[in-house]
Write a structure and sequence with these properties.
By secondary structure, the protein is α+β, with helices and mostly antiparallel strands. The protein has 13 helices and 16 strands. The protein has three domains: about 1-95 and about 200-230, D-Maltodextrin-Binding Protein, domain 2 (3-Layer(aba) Sandwich), CATH 3.40.190.10; about 95-195, 3-Layer(aba) Sandwich (D-Maltodextrin-Binding Protein, domain 2), CATH 3.40.190; about 235-310, Alpha-Beta Plaits (2-Layer Sandwich). The relative contact order is 0.14.
Length: about 325
């Protein structure tokens, strides 16, 4: 039975359920308060709802084979030398930045490089620069890498934005999305002060998967659908009827502009029923950001009935996430 740990709290809870449903992997629960469930369309699996802060350790300790967690929490809470690995680092939701923020009145402190001097000034006054954060490991590593060598980490579990104003820290390092909460509390981000950009990701326990091929096969079916959905979010399909002359020239033009237009494939159905005797129908799969450019090219060539569609899933010949996971399992086996 493949066990998948999903967030039971916070913004990631609803976002995770919504994303899985779009992937054709809706979570079935006996009730909304149930702490277990299962993914529809996948055999032999059980969903375990866990606190977001606990999912990394749940997978590390072997209580679940897979887990959905924010990459920021995984990198902060993971232990060295365990069998937990990142299988997919961006599931397209849960985006946030871990940033350094200082009080607005620190007008001379504009970039993370200024913190090195500030920390020395604090030291001259007899105490270290205090940084309030829920991410001590990531923050310490970042500050040291940016030449801020003297500071004290103040561990905090509540709202950090008030820390400088009430005096138990000088600056903060916290997660932000739009930055509105920082501004409302008279704080601002520093230039170069983004420690990391995080998204929801999928982690796995490679020792558990390596020990049971049936779990690997079940995991593959999940990864296939996750990756196909993510690719679909970046992909569009353009179909058009071409004149006989365009049938010869348009495919070559699209292939020449493949990289610039994000074209992934061009298919021609010659002699298809159309308004043009001897014409054809073309189907172009391309990056969504360049769909209008593809449409413009086809229209300039005299194409008729140009339609655009956005698929729900796009499967490649191989699932890249699955291949990466297999490589990680093989590396662990030979370690």
């Amino acid at each position: 039975m493949l066990r998948i740990a999903l967030p039971s709290d916070g913004a990631l809870h609803e976002d995770t359920l919504g994303f899985l449903q779009k992937c054709g992997l809706a979570v079935k629960q006996t009730s909304k308060r149930s702490l277990t469930g299962s993914l529809r369309g996948v055999r032999d699996n059980v969903v375990l709802f866990q606190r977001t802060a606990d999912i990394t350790s749940v997978v590390e300790q072997g209580s679940a084979e897979l887990g959905v967690v924010g990459l920021d929490r995984y990198l902060e809470y993971r232990r060295d030398g365990t069998d937990a690995i990142v299988v997919m680092d961006n599931l397209s939701f849960g985006r946030c930045d871990l940033v350094i923020a200082v009080p607005d009145e620190w007008v001379d402190v504009t970039s993370v490089a200024d913190l090195a001097d500030v920390s020395l000034e604090f030291l001259d006054k007899g105490h270290a620069l205090r940084v309030a954060t829920k991410y001590p490991r990531l923050v310490e590593r970042f500050l040291l890498a940016n030449d801020t060598l003297t500071f004290t980490i103040v561990h905090a579990s509540g709202a950090l934005e008030a820390a400088p104003s009430i005096g138990y820290a000088d600056i903060i390092a916290d997660i932000t999305d739009s930055g509105a909460t920082l501004r409302e509390n008279s704080l601002r981000r520093l230039d170069g002060g983004t420690i990391m950009t995080s998204h929801a990701g999928l982690i796995a326990n490679r020792a558990l998967l390596r020990a049971d091929p049936s779990l690997v096969d079940t995991t593959r079916s999940i990864l296939e659908r996750l990756e196909a959905r993510l690719r679909a979010e970046r992909t569009g399909t353009v179909r058009a009827t071409l004149r006989p002359s365009a049938t010869r020239s348009v495919p070559a033009q699209l292939n020449e502009m493949r990289s610039r237009l994000g074209v992934e494939s061009v298919a021609i159905q010659r002699g298809a029923d159309s308004l043009y005797d001897g014409g054809s129908e073309v189907t172009v799969v391309a990056d969504r950001a360049h769909i209008q450019n593809v449409v413009d090219l086809l229209r300039a060539a005299g194409a008729n009935l140009v339609t655009v569609g956005y698929p729900e899933s796009v499967f490649q010949s191989e699932c890249q996430a699955y291949q990466r996971m297999l490589s990680a399992l093989q590396e662990a086996a030979h370690a």
